[in-house]
Queue: 2 jobs
Job 1
Amino acid sequence: MRRELTDPTFHRKPLPAMEAQALILSHLIKMKCESVPLDQAVGRYLAEDLLAPHDLPHFARSGMDGYAVRSADLAGARTGMPIEFEVIEDIPCGAVPQKKIGSGQTARIMTGAMLPECADTVVMLEMVEVVGDRIRIIRELPLGRNVTEPGFEVRTEEKLLNQGTRIGPGEIALLATFGFAIVPVFTRPVVAVISTGDELLEVDAHLVPGKIRNSNRAMLQAQIELAGATALMMEPVGDILSSLVSAIDDAFLKADVVITTGGVSVGDRDVLVDWFGQWDGKMLFNKLKMRPGSPTTVGVKNHQMLFALSGNPGACFVGFELFVSPALRAMMGAVDRRFEDMEAVLTESFDKPNAFERYVRGCVSWNAGRLEARLAGVEQSSIVRTIAQANALLVIPAGVGLQAGQSIRFIPLRDWKGWA
Ligand code: AMP
Ligand code: MG
């Protein structure tokens, strides 16, 4: 179909990107909960707040290899005036002490071992002179030195982890410490990917004139998996409305979220536009006040969401990071913290003002104690290479150019702890 200027697709009302993101989040519901073994929990999102089932540590424990004593017994010890103790027990890690420490008595104790009753302080091995089955100490130590009290780290019932926390190695260590062999997590949203375009070839195909390999499909699969969701790769479709209709119908039967790429602009063969025209779901927006990816269109029906991303690789990538990724994380109880204000100093000028806000692929790095930002390369939505080079999206406000030395807001892209 040849589109004329009277076609409604030329007259869309654009929405600012962050308003679009908020609108998407307000239409989502959380996934169901499931239980998984701890060794399969990495990368998943906690479905409940978890409280500590016991104190950590749950017994008074030695922080050193040494001798457990009563601190009061050390009173007066100094060089030339050692105090002698009788060694009454040997306490390795994992053992339960059998004897109480009386005045003038001590027990040899290893790091992490349980403190014997009535002892309150541990003297390091290095500070002790051993004489047969007795020891001599020439220093006073304050009460409690080298002893970790029960609950020092975490108290029973204290909040350990919040719902929506993404489970990484640190969380795994905490869960293991507290005996969570089974972990309540949100089920992973299934995300179907349908790429459109008569020009698309499989990745392993030989190049032929006029055609290109389908990079968006593979890229989106990687993005979905890194976000902690499950990718369902549908067969790519050509620019024919009937094939698209059946592909999307099929995808909605199998997936929580559907992503299409391409066909969403004002071109003659942009079939997604025609598909939205005949859909009975609710279109949230079909134009964004941003570059790249201004024709990005999102619709929702029965809490299933369709993200129609632009086909240009750069726009497709940015569309996923700005809209799909936060949506998937929200469905698993998490807040995508990457959109909180982060700033760096721009080291080159970006002085081509645009009526729309821009999300430019950039590189942010530390230099001499400050965060600096530069463009990853030529900024065009068709460029693939800068997707690999970028570690951030630099936000250029609408209508202004920026000079070197000015502050710029950015959104980190890589898995920086706390943001991903
Ligand atoms: P479209 O959004 O369909 O108008 O496509 C915009 C541009 O992106 C065109 O140059 C397409 O060839 C290209 N493109 C579309 N889909 C893909 C894809 N899956 N992988 C790589 N490039 C694509
Ligand atoms: Mg196309």
Job 2
Amino acid sequence: MCGIVGYIGKAQAFPVLIKGLHRLEYRGYDSAGVALINDRGSLNIYKAKGKVEELELAVEEQDITGSVGIAHTRWATHGEPSTRNAHPHCSRSERLALVHNGIIENYESLRKELILKGYGFRSDTDTEVLVQLIDDVLTSTGTDLFAAVRTALQRVTGAYAIAVIDKQNPKQIVAARKGSPLVVGISNDALYLASDATPIAEYTSDIIYLDNEQVALLEEGQQPIVSTLKGEQVTYTIRHTDIAVGQLEKNGFEHYMLKEIFEQPDTLQQAMQGCMSAAGDIQMPDWDRCKQRFLNADRILLTACGTSWHAALIAKYAIEQFAHIPCEVEYASEFRYRQPVIKDRDVMIAISQSGETADTLAAIELAKQNGAFIYSICNVQGSSIPRLSDACCYTHIGPEIGVASTKAFTAQVLVLNMLALAIGKENGHLSLKQYTSLTNEMRRLPQYITTILLQNERIAKAARTLTFAADALYLGRGFLYPIALEGALKLKEISYIHAEGYPAAEMKHGPIALVSHDLPVVVVAPKDSLYDKMVSNIREITARHGRVIAVVTEGDTQVRDISELTMTVPPTADCWYPILTIIPLQLLAYHVAVAKDCNVDQPRNLAKSVTVE
Ligand code: F6R
């Protein structure tokens, strides 16, 4: 949450910073700001409440020259979204400007201490203490900025990624991270800084991923220097990012979310390819390193947040069915603060699109300390979760920019099912015949999704009838109960219609009281092994005049005849239905949100990468 960009080089910093902020806007969009040091050594700071385009309006007619600068797009934690609380924050001496992503937990005590020293505070943020603390170290010790940042950070508890500039040292940026991500980009004539590689990808593919408690000095014309908080120099590795700039554009679609929904035939193929051997058999990445751990596991713990947690729930069904290993699915945010029983024969599967979710990281750390083996499923290369894991399977779907996760989810479900099949084949719980039939069906999924997407126009028209709904229920059973949860999450997060997902048979234990003629009930009811049970559950809804919207298998008439609207998917095996049935539900949520004129790609109060707990 919050996006940071920095530039130091021979060109003008502002265009690079603004473009970078737009690329990072998915991380937060409450306010934005920029600090630049111009050729005469003046430090100019501009801020605006709202999105990056508001900042662009605010700087019209201002001096935006300078070849060194830092910028920020905010997701508010401490202090409401306002210009006053927007970053960069400036030091009392007015020589330093600082941007921050994270939360400073001991900011109250630091603030009191600084107030006693005569420091005043202009914002309600935790961040402002950082810039004043660094200012205090600089002025009281006369040391340089690199050392002052290190000294100040040793007094700080919490999470941070920061960038600081100093008008008395106008050819430097000092950056540091702990908990929140930060990468440095190196090109021939400039150095870049960003919360992830996306703003840097169009200038260079050479990236350094900073580790926790590392501080970097970026000086014009020099290679970056990285040290620990204590000042010991660190040897870093320059890695290559494979992000293509075209992947960061909307490519003719109205929104990133729609583009990403339509990419799914390709992204599924890419994710599948990443888990296949040259001979076309399932071969999970890092398999040699983790095979024995999976085969000897007493239990598999699956942990994640949000949409990725729904993928974890599907994996429980798959792993227990195909590999017969007991699974527990844990919200990372709950797991980390319980005293869970973790044994060294446990394997934890951590699932995260961004690879930076703070709670998932903490859950991994806890499991690792207790001897569990960590296998992660991630999308963003080089992010913190794969680096903390013992082994990782990347999903290879390219950047997901729409805040509502779509293509990441289907790829996660695919590779988790593939993992379940691989373990089941290996431990003999799954017969070769079953394995072959399921993998053959798996190869048809991209084509199936292409046919589902042909219903886009029809779903768009039907979605208009849902725009006035205040609530909606989503029902599914078995492998499709998590799809009911995920469908409901998609609707609520982008259209702000209250929606709940339930296992269909649970309705009669309470929620059925909500059913009336104006409650849309979305049922996920393809012809799987629980179809007949599901039909009975749907009839309980129609008997009470609920409005049924159904996802069914092509050719179905039973559910179609009692539904107001049906969306169809091709017939497939139970374990693959989640991947097919979520597609119409993604489209439904998208079109309802568009019809309600909601900001689909940047829903209110949300940010894509949740790097604070
Ligand atoms: C919802 C959504 C979120 C994320 C959650 C975890 O559409 O995207 O619920 O799934 O914040 O994020 P990752 O997968 O990056 O750990």
